[in-house]
């Protein structure tokens, strides 16, 4: 699907819900940093939760099934959002189902503006050798991914590898990131760890388990951007729902092609960045 730059009006619509930052990349030390306006003592990055949904609140036809919902216009919006964040985070279920590139394909997306892929893979199910995200990193069209694993030995450390970095969690993730199961994901630890690596903004894109567990912690989310496609997926679809009732404030809507995009913030008090 072709990806195009957004119009000025489309960019201005999204701007209030995006992090204010400038990427910098120091190739001499192979380190990435970002300058962020706001409270530098904040221990968490700016978090944008975004996904595409059908009219009946589904994000996929079934567990593990690749499902295209976004039209070309809203797909271009997604790549604009990726370019505006230091990292993009998904669960292993999304990687296994879609084999995503987790980069921005916009013509203006230079390497230094590419997001760092972050993959929550508790049981190390990702096929490192054949994955698209690794191929793109090797070709210089995306950045080296960071894989998050549950460490049974309870260690906390990063280990550098040729094709990817790894974050080992001190607290194992109970359950697998698949189907309708709801494992406990230590979001506070993950987000703080990303912040310590110079990642000051994270776009969280899926899948269902990742999104649903994060919806249970609205205090960690700065903004929500949801694309609603004009179709139903039916009773067998995979849905998104928080454990308890919640809602958005400061909302705005705009049409992107045939899709409707809603932006907002949770009504709970949230730190600023």
Automatic annotation (TrEMBL):
Q: Which GO terms describe its molecular function?
A: 5-amino-6-(5-phosphoribosylamino)uracil reductase activity
- Matching SUPFAM superfamilies: Dihydrofolate reductase-like (SSF53597)
UniProt-listed InterPro entries: DHFR-like_dom_sf (IPR024072), RibDG_C (IPR002734), Riboflavin_Biosynth_HTPR (IPR050765)
**Reaction(s) catalyzed by this protein?**
2,5-diamino-6-(1-D-ribitylamino)pyrimidin-4(3H)-one 5'-phosphate + NADP(+) = 2,5-diamino-6-(1-D-ribosylamino)pyrimidin-4(3H)-one 5'-phosphate + NADPH + H(+); 2,5-diamino-6-(1-D-ribitylamino)pyrimidin-4(3H)-one 5'-phosphate + NAD(+) = 2,5-diamino-6-(1-D-ribosylamino)pyrimidin-4(3H)-one 5'-phosphate + NADH + H(+)
Q: Which GO terms describe its biological process?
A: riboflavin biosynthetic process
Kindly state which keywords UniProt assigns to this record, in alphabetical order: NADP, Oxidoreductase, Riboflavin biosynthesis
Which pathway does it take part in? Cofactor biosynthesis; riboflavin biosynthesis
What are the Bacterial bifunctional deaminase-reductase C-terminal domain coordinates in residue numbering? 45-242
Q: List the EC numbers from the record.
A: 1.1.1.302
Query: What this chain does, per the record?
Result: Catalyzes an early step in riboflavin biosynthesis, the NADPH-dependent reduction of the ribose side chain of 2,5-diamino-6-ribosylamino-4(3H)-pyrimidinone 5'-phosphate, yielding 2,5-diamino-6-ribitylamino-4(3H)-pyrimidinone 5'-phosphate.
Q: Which PANTHER family match?
A: 2,5-DIAMINO-6-RIBOSYLAMINO-4(3H)-PYRIMIDINONE 5'-PHOSPHATE REDUCTASE, DIHYDROFOLATE REDUCTASE FAMILY PROTEIN (AFU_ORTHOLOGUE AFUA_8G06820)
Family membership noted in the UniProt record: Belongs to the HTP reductase family.
Its recorded name reads 2,5-diamino-6-ribosylamino-4(3H)-pyrimidinone 5'-phosphate reductase
The top of its lineage is:
Eukaryota, Fungi, Dikarya, Ascomycota, Pezizomycotina
């Amino acid at each position: 699907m072709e990806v195009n730059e957004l119009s000025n009006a489309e960019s201005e619509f999204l701007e209030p819900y995006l992090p204010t930052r400038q990427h910098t990349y120091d190739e001499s030390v192979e380190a990435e940093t970002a300058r962020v306006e706001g409270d530098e003592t904040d221990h968490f990055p700016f978090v944008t939760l975004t996904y595409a949904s059908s009219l009946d609140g589904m994000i996929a036809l079934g567990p593990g099934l690749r499902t295209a919902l976004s039209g070309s216009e809203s797909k271009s919006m997604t790549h604009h959002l990726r370019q505006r964040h230091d990292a993009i985070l998904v669960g292993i279920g999304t990687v296994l189902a879609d084999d995503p590139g987790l980069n921005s394909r916009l013509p203006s997306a230079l390497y230094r503006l590419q997001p760092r892929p972050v993959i929550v893979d508790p049981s190390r199910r990702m096929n490192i050798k054949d994955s698209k995200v690794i191929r793109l990193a090797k070709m210089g069209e995306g950045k080296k991914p960071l894989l998050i694993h549950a460490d049974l030995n309870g260690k906390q450390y990063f280990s550098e590898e040729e094709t990817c970095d790894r974050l080992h969690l001190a607290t194992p993730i109970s359950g697998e990131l698949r189907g309708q199961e709801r494992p406990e994901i230590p979001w506070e630890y993950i987000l703080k760890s990303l912040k310590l690596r110079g990642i000051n903004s994270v776009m969280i894109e899926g899948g269902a388990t990742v999104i649903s567990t994060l919806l249970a912690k609205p205090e960690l989310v700065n903004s929500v951007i949801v694309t609603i496609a004009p179709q139903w997926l039916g009773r067998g679809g995979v849905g998104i729902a928080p454990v308890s009732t919640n809602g958005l404030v400061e909302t705005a809507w705009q049409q992107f092609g045939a899709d409707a995009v809603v932006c907002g913030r949770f009504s709970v008090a949230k730190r600023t960045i």
